[in-house]
Amino acid sequence: MKTLIIKGSPESGKTTIGRLFVDADTVYINGRSIINHFSFSSCKKTTKTIIIDDIKNEKDLELFKEIIFNKGEIVVNKRGEEPFEIKLDRLILICDFL
């Protein structure tokens, strides 16, 4: 899996750059939302790229790392369905720090 970290000051165009990687197999997650195992519920078995935008601090980044880096795969939990694993080609993290 390739990881791309885009960092910069607010309103500097980071999200615009990140969206250049969007295709049919991409899931966009707002990093400002509450982070838990259901944060990836919009993923499908065919998801190849996840963009996590607007990560505000190191604590939030650590939460994403804990969920994401499970043997290089993400376990997707959807309500009413059996959990499944996906293997990503790309992970794009967009943040205002680092």
Whole-angstrom Rg: 13 Å
The number of distinct β-strands equals 6
Lateral strand order in the biggest sheet: 1-6-3-2
Helical amount among residues, as a percent range?
10-25%
Span between termini: 21 Å
- Unreliable stretches covering 5 or more consecutive residues: none
The H-and-E topology, N to C, reads as: EHEEHEEE
Can you tell me about this structure?
- With 98 residues, this protein is of the alpha/beta class.
- It has two helices and six strands.
- The chain has helices spanning 14-18, 58-68, and strands spanning 2-7, 26-30, 49-55, 73-76, 84-87, 90-95.
- The longest helix has 11 residues, at 58-68.
- It is globular, with a radius of gyration of 13 Å.
Helix and strand arrangement:
Blueprint lengths: L1 E6 L6 H5 L7 E5 L18 E7 L2 H11 L4 E4 L7 E4 L2 E6 L3
Could you write a compact summary of the structure shown?
With 98 residues, this protein is of the alpha/beta class.
Keywords for this entry:
98 residues, alpha/beta, four-stranded parallel beta sheet, two-stranded antiparallel sheet, globular
